[in-house]
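Give me structure tokens for this 342-residue protein.
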Amino acid sequence: MIDRSKNRATPTRKDFQSNQEVRWCPACGDYSILSQVQKIVPTLGIEKEKFVFVSGIGCSSRFPYYMNTYGFHTIHGRAPTIATGLKVANPDLSVWVITGDGDALSIGGNHLIHALRRNMDIKILLFNNRIYGLTKGQYSPTSEQGKKTKSTPAGSPDYPVHPVSLALAAEATFVARAIDTDTKHLAGVIERAARHRGSAFIEIFQNCNIFNDGAFDEFKARDVRDERVVRLEQGKPVRFGKEGGRGIRLRNCTLEAVSSGPGEEPPDCIVHDEKSRSFIAYMLARMEYPEFPVAIGVFRDLEKPTYGELLDEQGDFRIAGDTAEALRSLLHTGETWVVGNE
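Here you go.
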């Protein structure tokens, strides 16, 4: 048998670009995310044939067409289910789920939760633009309360879902948030998720310039983001502001934004620990402008056995004995009936 892997050239971003025309609206934030994924995957040391991108329904779900890899464009909300089956059937695959706030958090909410809590070794990128874009501008599960859309002309009465909070509560072992326009930070978070062993979830704030343009400008715009966004870094105080003169502290089980004088460090800042299971990550995920800066970065990065590894531990039990006879015995357990003539 000839080992052809030694003769393969190191893959590049171009190797992962398909020949399909990218059909998103001009200036859509999806382009940025696609670009960063195509930049990162060649660096992972994984054969191109082992990547699979799975999507549901929505603008983001065109993603598999634009990756020169295997892929599935599945049905609304069920991408995590398809991805789960793929990973269980072939553990050697690098399985990615591309989804949106409407796809993952409405009809797909239950499937998302269970993929995360099982610690499936899959990577889930949730594009959050706070709107239904493909169906032309209805409010979504993450739309802010009072949002006026075609389906809520008087304003949405719903309280929005917070994706990072949900992922943390579902016990995902890697949870992060990034912004489409902060490409260097986005690429770093995607790479960390890709190398994580277990359920990896990233919420990406993504602009829909047609139906919800500027949804995140109040804190992500270049001229204000230093004061309104805080980057979480492992082992470092949670500080923000152009000179790092503001910070977040915990006082009486409540977060507070504090400031310092010129040349001073803000007092008693939380030191971020992404290895902790404490409630602080949840609280940081819930911070919202204008009361607080919006937190981006990695909220949690833990190690524990994956679903696939736990299945492997049952391997001897699952394959013991004659498989056909075991199946026949299972099907005829208890009372059975024969209907019609044999």
